[in-house]
TrEMBL record:
InterPro entries assigned: MetI-like (IPR000515), MetI-like_sf (IPR035906)
Gene source species: Beutenbergia cavernae (strain ATCC BAA-8 / DSM 12333 / CCUG 43141 / JCM 11478 / NBRC 16432 / NCIMB 13614 / HKI 0122)
Annotated ABC transmembrane type-1 domain residues: 95-284
Record key words, sorted: Cell membrane, Membrane, Transmembrane, Transmembrane helix, Transport
PANTHER family: ABC TRANSPORTER PERMEASE PROTEIN MG189-RELATED, ABC TRANSPORTER PERMEASE PROTEIN MG189-RELATED-RELATED
Record bears the keyword Repeat: no
One protein family per Pfam: BPD_transp_1
Cellular component aspect of the GO annotation: plasma membrane
Compositional bias of kind Polar residues: 1-16
Localisation: Cell membrane
Protein name per Swiss-Prot or TrEMBL: Binding-protein-dependent transport systems inner membrane component
Taxonomy, superkingdom: Bacteria
Major localization listed first in the record, in broad terms: membrane
C-alpha cells in the first residue's frame, strides 16, 4: 500500500506531465520548423540590403559603381565617403536639429496623449463617445492629405522656417491617444477612488498613481514617437528651406541633389542617418519589443 502510494505520483507525473525529452520532441514539429525557416528567410531579406548599404558606404566611388558588383572592393575599404559627407554638408547641425525637434515632439506628444487618453478613460463628459469615435476615425486619414492645410496654418502663424513649424504639426497623434486610453482602462479604478477619498486631486492621481503604473506603455509610446519624428522626411522638407534649420534626412537629401548620385556617399549618408536610431534600439530594445507585443503599437 505504501509502495503504491509512493509510486503513484511518479506514475502520474510520467503519464500526465510530459518529460523533458517529450517536450523537446514535441518542440520540433514540422510546422515549427517551417515557421522558423520562413522567419529566417524574412530576416535575411531585411538584413541583406542593410549589410549591402553598410559595405558600400566603406567603398570608394569607383568600387561602388563597378560592374560586375562585388562584395570585396579592389581598392580596399575606406572611410572616404564618410569624410566627404561630413565635410560637404552640415551633418552635425542637421543631427542636432533632428535631436532637438524629435525630443520636443516626443515630450509634447506623450504629455498631450496621456492627458487626452486619461480624460477619455476616466471622465464621462458630454460628447465623449463622439470624441473617441473621431479620434479612432482620424487614425485612418493619411497624413499626406493634411499637408496643405497644415502648411497654410504655419504660414498664417508665421512659423514657416522655424523649429516650431517642424514640431507643432507632429504632436497630435491619435493612435497614441487611443492606445493610452485603452491602457488606462485596465488600471483598477479602486486605486484612484481611494486617493480621491484621501483628498487627492485628479492631477495628483494622474502624476503619482497612473503615470508610475503606466511606465511601460509610456516608454513604448515615447520610443515609437521619437523614431517616427526622427525619420519624418516629408513635413520638415516642406516647412523648412533654410539649411541651418534642416533635419538630418532633409539635409542629407540636399547633399545628394547638389553633387549627383554618388553611391558610396549615398550609403554613408543613409548609415549616418540610421545610426542614432540603431543606438536607441540597442539601449531600449526590451521596451520596444515589449511595446510591440503588448500593444500592437507598430501597426498604429
Amino acid at each position: 500500500m505504501t509502495a503504491q502510494t509512493l509510486s503513484h505520483p511518479a506514475a502520474t507525473s510520467q503519464a500526465g506531465a510530459p518529460s523533458g525529452t517529450a517536450r523537446r520532441r514535441r518542440g520540433v514539429r514540422p510546422a515549427r520548423v517551417v515557421a522558423f525557416a520562413i522567419l529566417v528567410v524574412l530576416a535575411l531579406a531585411w538584413l541583406i540590403p542593410v549589410l549591402w548599404a553598410v559595405l558600400t558606404s566603406f567603398k570608394t566611388e569607383a568600387d561602388a559603381a563597378a560592374f560586375p558588383i562585388s562584395i570585396w572592393p579592389t581598392q580596399g575599404f575606406t572611410l572616404e565617403a564618410f569624410r566627404t559627407t561630413l565635410a560637404e554638408g552640415m551633418v552635425p547641425r542637421w543631427a542636432w536639429n533632428s535631436l532637438l525637434t524629435s525630443t520636443a515632439v516626443t515630450v509634447i506628444t506623450v504629455v498631450i496623449s496621456s492627458l487626452a487618453g486619461y480624460a477619455m478613460s476616466r471622465f464621462d463628459f458630454a460628447g465623449r463617445r463622439m470624441l473617441l469615435a473621431v479620434t479612432v476615425a482620424s487614425i485612418m486619414i493619411p497624413g499626406q492629405i493634411l499637408i496643405v492645410p497644415l502648411f497654410q496654418q504655419m504660414l498664417t502663424f508665421n512659423l514657416v522656417d522655424t523649429y516650431w513649424g517642424i514640431i507643432l504639426p507632429q504632436v497630435i497623434a491619435a493612435p497614441m491617444v487611443f492606445i493610452l486610453k485603452k491602457f488606462f482602462d485596465q488600471i483598477p479604478r479602486e486605486l484612484e477612488e481611494a486617493a480621491l477619498m484621501d483628498g487627492a486631486s485628479r492631477l495628483r492621481i494622474l502624476w503619482q498613481i497612473v503615470v508610475p503604473l503606466s511606465r511601460p506603455i509610456l516608454g513604448a509610446v515615447s520610443i515609437f514617437v521619437f523614431i517616427g519624428a526622427w525619420n519624418n522626411f516629408l513635413w520638415p522638407f516642406i516647412v523648412v528651406n533654410k539649411a541651418e534649420l534642416m533635419t538630418l534626412p532633409v539635409g542629407l537629401q540636399t547633399v545628394i541633389s547638389a553633387y549627383g548620385i554618388q553611391y558610396a556617399q549615398n550609403m554613408a549618408q543613409a548609415v549616418l542617418a540610421a545610426l542614432p536610431l540603431i543606438v536607441v534600439f540597442l539601449f531600449f530594445q526590451r521596451q520596444i519589443i515589449k511595446g510591440i507585443s503588448t500593444t500592437g503599437i507598430a501597426g498604429a
